[in-house]
């Protein structure tokens, strides 16, 4: 192939795609990167200041993800509207088992953070404006054809006929619902949990005290994450509530005060009375994995490669670690004079990330299955396990490191004074 139009095409400019573009701009500046995004983008649309909305969707960021954003020079801005999680309380409704994690016990300022998705997107866009990353928006990748030395990508752009771009590699980062993954011939393995996640912001009469609650119930797990001010422990939390199809429809049909009463019954009174619930969003819960997420010239990342149950808030944090692993392999390929679309380069990324995503999938899936059983012997065993976590320092430290996103491989980051440093795989 003669010189391609660009070196890398990223299909999808959401949190995963934009983070990958920024990481490459910071760490592999020799690469020409083009992001193809379905939504229109304009620097003029970026507000001068950010006003959080009560109904804003949010993401749980593990401590390990903070470390990655620090390496990318993004954390200082993100932290302006990121609420710290200083404590985690895990309990089993109707049973005695419980465990508690505290950041101070692990020498950390926080176990994780909660940040609005829109705020994270704005921070990424502002940083990307100062890079050489190119954008095609609104546009969509509709197909791809392998060619010698790379790929030819077909784009559908608003108001124009189909366009084409050549590149050394295509990274699919547009989530698991776009259909591009399937159009390119990847076959995901799906397991439905027969449940739905209801997401909303709620207010309580008592302050959250920067505490995240993971509550396992007979209907499935629910989480309440501290939300709002990064410095003042307020009364707003982000809710993730797991419900069956039937119960979901019942809850959605209720007026807000009745929704709060249902929530009160399932969660209890650890935060006092539920006083408000915002706009409710929901989606079906499915464990989706792609066993072979790479091909010559193509790699899947983020939810396009693996989508998890939201229990323990591992999804985006796993994706972020995978992105940094891919960036490192691209950096090494550039140093070695190899094409970033070389299948051996992409297989190396897959091999390094595989253990992390397999462990994280097993961790999340086992929690769902373990706490989904109502049989008395199983309930007694898991409650004993929760008490054991609270009493055994080694087990508790392992659980805390999983929660903080420090259980998997963290990619090497090129920074002054930090060249060629890699955290051990057991960090």
Automatic annotation (TrEMBL):
The keyword Oxidoreductase applies. Pathway: Cofactor biosynthesis; ubiquinone biosynthesis. Keywords: FAD, Flavoprotein, Monooxygenase, Oxidoreductase. It is an enzyme of class 1 (oxidoreductase). Its cofactor is FAD. Residues 5-363 form the FAD-binding domain. InterPro entries: FAD-bd (IPR002938), FAD/NAD-bd_sf (IPR036188), UbiH/COQ6 (IPR010971), UbiH/COQ6_monooxygenase (IPR051205). Its EC number is 1.14.13.-. Pfam families: FAD_binding_3. One of its GO terms (molecular function) is oxidoreductase activity. The keyword NAD does not apply. SUPFAM superfamilies: FAD/NAD(P)-binding domain. It comes from the Bacteria. Belongs to the UbiH/COQ6 family. PANTHER family: 2-OCTAPRENYL-6-METHOXYPHENOL HYDROXYLASE, UBIQUINONE BIOSYNTHESIS MONOOXYGENASE COQ6, MITOCHONDRIAL. NCBIfam families: PRK05732.1, Ubi-OHases. This is 2-octaprenyl-6-methoxyphenyl hydroxylase. It comes from Marinobacter adhaerens. The lineage of its organism: Bacteria, Pseudomonadati, Pseudomonadota, Gammaproteobacteria, Pseudomonadales.
